[in-house]
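Let us practice reading a record.
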Amino acid sequence: MTKRLTSVWRASQKLFACSACSRGFPRLSQLEEHKATHQPLKPFMCLECGKSFTQKTRLKTHQSVHTGERPFSCKICGKIFTVLGNLKIHQEIHKKGR
């Protein structure tokens, strides 16, 4: 699939729109997660530095800054990541090189 077709396909998949900013998401769960960014309340606070987050998962990811934990590694080149999504984006580099 070409880049243009991919972007058109992705645009058509954004079925759920945020009422605050109109950003679109393909899944309702992603919209719900995004909505929290518009809330002033950030109940999950890092005990190391005091930074607060709207979601517990975001706090857990942030804590790797302090622990150095990087649980996701590329099987091709060995580069390590704190977030699975970043590993998946990185792996596209190897796919393009085929």
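A brief commentary: Strands lie at 16-17, 24-25, 44-45, 52-53, 72-73, 80-81.
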